Amino acid sequence: MNTIIRKSMLSVAGLAFAGGVVAGPIAAHADPVDGKPVAVAVQSAAPKPQGEQSRITLNDEQTANVKAIIAATKKAGLPERAAVISIATSLQESKLENLGHLGDKNDHDSLGLFQQRPTSGWGTPEQITDPAYSTTAFLKGLQQVDGWQDMALTDAAQTVQVSAYPDAYAQWEQQATDLVGQYWNS
């Protein structure tokens, strides 16, 4: 057996033993629910935000868009990290405002929370300006990125968005993390 597998097996066995030592006395006095084993989730710490962070005060529309992004993320069966990346991306692209065509301010046909373009295949203008649809489209793109869960936020967002300002997403990571923490379970 190679060393990595052996060490992994020993680590798992050690965690199982330690969990039994700690939970054993508590579990011995607990009423059985249905006799099925209970799964315990272990989460790693979220990556530390990169660089200087920005923050804006959200109005009701922006807060509703945060909730729509979280709902679409949950519906897709993705973890909180996907919602953090999505919200940070939308903060950078539109400040969480569902933007229509910006006319002379915009030389492209970018629309919605993520500034997606109909001519780039993101969907129709009506679809792109639907927060649930645009978030789902973004998440589908994110899922195509190998290792997105462990990437720096700005790298994951940039791989999906292909922005002219690839490092700009990072400044919104802390606020996005805070928003997901605030609204994920509400």
From TrEMBL:
Keywords annotated in UniProt: Signal
Organism from which the protein derives: Micromonospora zamorensis
Protein name: Secreted protein
Highest taxon in the source lineage: Bacteria
Stretch forming the signal peptide: 1-23
